[in-house]
Sequence to fold (206 residues):
Amino acid sequence: MSIKYKKLVVGVTGASGAIYAQRLLLHSKEIFNEIFLMMSRQAYQVIETEQGIRLDKEHFEISRWLGSSAPNIHLLDDNNYFTPPASGSFRHDGMIIVPCSMGTAGRIANGISNDLLTRSADVCLKEQRKLILIPREMPWNVMMLQNMTKLAQSGATILPASPAWYHKPENFNELADTVVSRALQLLGVDHNITPQWMQEEVNHGK
Ligand SMILES: Cc1cc2nc3c(=O)[nH]c(=O)nc-3n(C[C@H](O)[C@H](O)[C@H](O)COP(=O)(O)O)c2cc1C
Fold:
C-alpha cells in the first residue's frame, strides 16, 4: 500500500492535544503535495490554551503555528462547501481528524454533516476512502463507545491519542510523533518518523 494522489485532508477540532495536529502537519507537508486543512472554531481556542499561540481565523498564517513555511497547506473555510473535499469527485489519499473531539466524532457517527469538516468525513465514508480519527477524551461513556463502534463499522479507523512509551521519547514532540506516525503509516506512508520495533536490533545482528 502506498499513497497515490499525494493529497491529504486534515481536520483539527477542539479536543485536547493540539500538538498532535501540529506534528502531523509538519511531517505531512514534507510527504504530500497538497494538504487541505479545516479547523473547527474551538480548535483555535485549544491551540491558544495549550500552546500559547493566538491564531487569527481571518488572517491565519499556518507558518506561524508550525514555525515553518507551508505553502502546500490550504486552509479552508469550515463553512465553505465550494471546496474540493466537500465532494466525492475529488480524489485524495485520505482524511485524518486530529485531535478529534467527542462532539465531532458523534456528529460523524450519526451522519450529521453540518460543516465542511464533518461533510468531508462523511464523503470519505461514502466513497470508502481512508478516514482516521484520533480521538481524545477520558473516560469514555457508553454513548462515546457506541459512536466509535458505529464509525469503525462504517469504515473509519479509530486511532486513540494513546502515545507509546517503548520508543523512549525524549520530549513531547517525539511522544506525539508515536501517534501521528502511526496514522500516516495507516494511510500507506513509508516513514522513518518513529523507529520500527526491534528493526535496528535485527539489522545489527543482536
Ligand atoms: C482546553 C480545552 C480542552 C478540551 N479537551 C477536549 C477533549 O480532550 N475532548 C473532547 O471531546 N472535548 C474537549 N474539549 C471540548 C470541545 O472543545 C467542545 O466539546 C467543542 O464543542 C468541540 O467542538 P468541535 O468538535 O467542533 O471542535 C475541550 C475544550 C477546551 C477549551
The mean pLDDT is 95. The pocket of flavin mononucleotide is lined by residues 13-16, 40, 42-43, 45-46, 49, 101-104, 136-137 (CB under 6 Å). Residues 172-187 form the longest helix (16 residues). The chain has one domain: 7-201.
